[in-house]
Q: What sequence folds into this?
């Protein structure tokens, strides 16, 4: 998972980063709200960690901005020295999902992060996964469309499953590359585009099948459900013969 944290204490951020990476996640850090918001405008993340008092803004202001500008419900955890009941209420009412106070107990923070991620992104159940006409078979890493097997390469299967499991989310290019090729992989942008294009063709991703993958200029891709066009063959209603022209 991709996690981003903002705090005005660089040493605190380094502790967060080490703890989060020890859990197997990636972590980006920022010292100001402006730097975080700039990152959020071009990247996507699975969880945000927000301090309350920042050099240029406040944590609640950031949380409200995120909730107003992003349609996905990314989990947000406040980690702050503020501990009054009214602060906790304000933090949660601004849109955060959880709240913990400093000094940070890293074990507790890691447990809270794990709980938030499990709730937001539940693990896939064992056995086939079905999305409309699409059926994923994890054990054999195979996929069927309307009961017909479709041959996909390993990366294509991983990318297709990741898109279906993150339906409706806007996913940045870096997010997709890290999820499918790994953090250290040197993958050119064209390779991702080629895989997306092949999936569109191989899986017949179009409105008539109820699913489309759309490029979002300058950011990444969004995979979403759409309403198939009507195919009932209906025609315009018959209003009877045209009115006769009066005789001169």
A:
């Amino acid at each position: 998972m991709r996690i981003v944290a903002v705090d005005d204490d660089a040493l605190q951020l380094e502790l967060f980063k080490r703890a989060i990476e020890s859990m197997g996640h990636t972590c980006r850090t920022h010292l100001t709200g402006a730097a975080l918001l700039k990152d959020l405008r071009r990247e996507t993340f699975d969880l945000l960690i927000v301090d309350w008092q920042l050099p240029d803004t406040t944590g609640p202001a950031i949380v409200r901005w995120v909730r107003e500008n992003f349609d996905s419900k990314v989990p947000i955890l406040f980690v702050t020295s503020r501990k009054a009941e009214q602060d906790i209420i304000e933090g949660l009412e601004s849109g955060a999902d959880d709240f913990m106070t400093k000094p940070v107990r890293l074990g507790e923070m890691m447990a809270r992060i794990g709980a938030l991620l499990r709730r937001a992104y539940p693990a896939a159940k064992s056995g086939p996964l079905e999305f409309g006409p699409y059926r994923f078979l994890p054990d054999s890493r195979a996929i069927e469309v309307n009961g017909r097997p479709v041959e996909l390469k390993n990366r294509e299967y991983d990318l297709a499953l990741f898109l279906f499991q993150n339906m409706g989310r806007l996913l940045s290019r870096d997010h997709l590359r890290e999820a499918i090729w790994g953090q250290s992989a040197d993958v050119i942008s064209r390779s991702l585009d080629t895989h997306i294009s092949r999936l569109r063709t191989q899986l017949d991703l179009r409105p008539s099948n109820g699913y489309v993958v759309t490029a979002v200029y300058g950011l990444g891709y969004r995979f979403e459900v759409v309403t198939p066009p009507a195919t009932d063959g209906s025609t315009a209603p018959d209003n009877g013969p045209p009115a006769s022209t009066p005789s001169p």
Observations:
- The mean pLDDT is 88.
